[in-house]
Specification:
alpha+beta, five-stranded antiparallel β-sheet, 9 helices
Length: about 220
């Protein structure tokens, strides 16, 4: 799935934060639209206040991700969806390593794109849903560098504690969870889960995992 850096930044608003989200307190009483709006506006406000510093040191963006975005994402749900059948077969240690490696890789490779992400590039539409709904979609629109606008929609679910958390982002009808699951599935079948995790831990981009390494064959 090819995406411009500005669109990847929108993905990072969801995906990059999920590494740390499991233990963070979520905002109580907010609906799904409010969750996305509050998180994105808070982060963009801080970026605008000192964008020059973040451009010089993009790694500092990670602190903003931790402050504004981490409370609102369902790490385990997203990881399960990406790994599919392999999640059920994975050991607890493999699951933890995958979550850490996958989302650290996303953040390290794409988080810097958030430095150039400005409020005028993002439009969040009102959410319409039943009062007793447990799932929802927050529709947004992102403006690319060339001026084109594309749909970037967040899949949300209501968790056991009543808070709303995102677990997927759908770009122009294409789910990033489903895309990565397709890429990872074939490589895990060929190389084994540990080998794919090791590639992510070495800093390989998740989008490059679909490229077969030399030697082929599934590893135990």
């Amino acid at each position: 799935m090819k995406m411009s850096k500005i669109v990847i930044a929108a993905v990072a608003l969801v995906a990059g934060a999920q590494v740390y989200a499991a233990d963070a307190p979520a905002a109580a009483g907010q609906g799904p639209g409010e969750v996305v709006t509050t998180a994105s506006q808070g982060m963009l406000k801080d970026l605008d206040a000192d964008r020059g510093t973040y451009k010089k040191d993009p790694a500092k963006v990670n602190a903003l991700v931790e402050k504004y975005l981490l409370p609102h994402f369902d790490t385990e749900k997203a990881a399960q969806a990406v790994l599919g059948q392999h999640w059920r077969q994975a050991t607890p240690d493999q699951r933890k390593r995958f979550v850490d490696a996958f989302y650290h890789s996303l953040l390290n490779n794409y988080g810097s794109a958030l430095v150039d992400f400005t409020s005028d590039r993002l439009k969040i539409f009102p959410v319409k849903m039943d009062s007793n709904a447990t799932t929802s979609t927050v529709r947004t629109e992102v403006k690319r560098d060339n001026g084109d606008r594309i749909d970037v929609n967040y899949s949300m679910r209501k968790t056991a504690d009543g808070s709303w958390k995102a677990w997927d982002v759908v770009i122009s009808g294409i789910s990033y969870v489903n895309s990565y699951r397709t890429d990872f599935d074939s490589q895990i079948d060929q190389q084994g889960l540990d080998a794919v995790i090791a590639r992510l831990e070495k800093g390989e981009k998740p989008a490059d995992i679909q490229k077969t390494t030399s030697g082929g064959g599934k590893k135990s």
